[in-house]
Amino acid sequence: MQFELLAASLRADSTDLAAFTEALAAKLEGALPGQTELQRKGGGLFGGPKRVSKIGVQLGDCRYELRVEKQGIECARGKSVRGIVLKTDQLTLDEWIDALSQELTEQAGKNEQARLALERLVGP
């Protein structure tokens, strides 16, 4: 049940990709501050807002990355050993959300920090 709630929470408002990416970045950074890395681009000549261009989340030996490209969102999951990525799979956005949610749900069953992060993501 936690997996479905988390996946639904991460999918919320995915119709507007810019707003979705910003909301997802805020949720992940708030829940997993030590495991989430964000990159922002933009601002331009007139100082407009910088937008999230990449989200990276490290969960155990899996690295989840979401990149905002001109043609849309590109998602990948990499397996790493001692910080070296050995295998990377390209995923659709739905597959990425499902895989990230599943991994976090599994880790929540094993340790307290992951359980608390899961609670922050699903929230009230």
Would you mind describing this structure in some detail?
With 124 residues, this protein is α+β, with helices and mostly antiparallel strands. It has one domain. Helix content is 42%, strand content 35%. It has helices at 2-11, 17-31, 93-108, 112-122, and strands at residues 36-42, 50-59, 62-69, 72-81, 84-91. A hairpin with a 2-residue loop joins strand 3 and strand 4. Helix 1 crosses helix 3 (93-108) and helix 3 (93-108) crosses helix 4 (112-122).
Please work out how many helical segments DSSP would assign. Answer: 4
How many distinct folded domains?
1
**Helix/sheet category:** alpha+beta
Number of strands: 5
How much of the sequence is in beta strands?
25-35%
Indicate the low-confidence ranges by residue numbers. Answer: none
What is the topology, as strand order, of the major beta sheet? 1-2-3-4-5
Q: Average the pLDDT over all residues and give the rounded result.
A: 81
Q: Calculate Rg over CA atoms.
A: 14 Å
Q: What is the H/E string?
A: HHEEEEEHH
- The backbone outline, from C-alpha atoms, is globular
Our measurement of the CA-to-CA distance between the termini, rounded to an integer number of angstroms, reads 15 Å
Classify the helix fraction into a percent range.
Answer: 40-55%
Major beta sheet summary: 5 strands, antiparallel
